Every structure is written in C-alpha cells, then in structure tokens.
Amino acid sequence: LKVSLMVENARGCRDTITKTVEPYPIPTIDFSYTTSDTCLSPLTAYFKNLSTGATEYAWNFGNGKSSVLTDPSSSYAQGGKYPITLVGKNSYNCSISKTKELEVAPELVADFEMDTSGGCMPLTVKFTNKSKEADYYTWDLGDGNSSNLKDLNHVYVKSGVLKVSLMVENARGCRDTITKTVEPYPIPTIDFSYTTSDTCLS
After folding, report:
1. pLDDT one-digit tens code per residue, 100-113
2. Which of 14, 54, 160, 192 qualifies as a FRET site for 200, CA 20 to 30 Å off?
3. Is there a contact between 92 and 69 (Cβ–Cβ < 8 Å)?
4. Across-strand partners of 158?
5. 14 CB contacts (<8 Å, ≥6 apart)?
6. pTM beyond 0.85
7. How many CB atoms lie within 10 A of CB 175?
8. Beta strands 118-120 and 175-185: pairing type?
C-alpha cells in the first residue's frame, strides 16, 4: 500500500513524499475434535486442523502435553475441563491462536465393601457402596435375590461360596461391574430321641 504525505506552507508551496507499507495477512485458525469411547479411560481425543494460511502449528492440549503435528491426538486419564489451544504461524511470522474446551467425564468405578465375608447361617451382611460417579445400581446377591438400592443389608439362608456382583451405570450409559464372594456357613441339624427303662421300676 502507498502512503503519501503532501505538505504546504503559508506561501502555497507544496511537496509530497510517498512510501509503501505492507500489512501481512494472518492465518485463519480453527480446529475440531472427536473422542474415543467416552466410557473408556484414558480417553483419546483426535484433533482435526481446519486452519488456512498457516505454515507452522503448535498445539497445547491442557494436560501437560503439546505437539507440532497438523492433526495430532492426545490422551486424558483424569476427568475435568481442558483448554485446547492451537497456534498457527505463516511465512510472514504472523501468528494467531484459538482455544476450545474439552470436557472429560470422570471415570466410572464400581466398588463395595462387606462388613463380613462369612459366618454361620442365617448370615446378615451389610453392603456399603463405594462406587464413584455412578447414578444407577444393580446388585446380584448370589442367592437368587437382587436389589437396586445403593446400600443394603441382606440375610443369607443358603450356604456355600456365593458370588455377589454390583453393576453400576452413569447417565451417559457407561457401565462397570465388580464381583466379590460371601460364604454363609451351614449349620448342623440337631435332633435326638430317647427311650426309658421299665416305667414300673424305680
């Protein structure tokens, strides 16, 4: 672009000077991303560079990792919100950045505790749910009984080594299951009979 300056004094004398200035273009920066199965951990994000006019790129994934690839990927092991920043630079050394947020859901983990793992029948067991990020619960108590309560007490009247399973689910449809064993011990069957001597004798 040409920039001209014309000057004039009180006597009407004029002079002009012209110089050039060149505003360099800046890149257009944009990107999109897709993720692996959101129920799996770690979650992998795949980034698609949609920028134009740039010759160099620098990514910051918000998880302590970075990349200079055009279309990189990165993994996230912890739930949270991560700022994803892409910086683009062109041949004029002009750079511009764009940031988007990636939200990673916390990992769903099934877990529970029992106050006892064995004892004589009838055996009462207190089940305490220790699951993380779960919204729905399905218990298989191993003796044909089930429950959808978060925590519960159950009385076992069937002996043997029984498998107790807890399946948990979150609002996104992710599921996880954990299985432990409980052993109600059988109790002996007690009975007796008796006979007497001649009831006429003393």
Report:
1. 999 998 999 999 99
2. 192
3. no
4. none
5. 6, 7, 8
6. no
7. 15
8. parallel
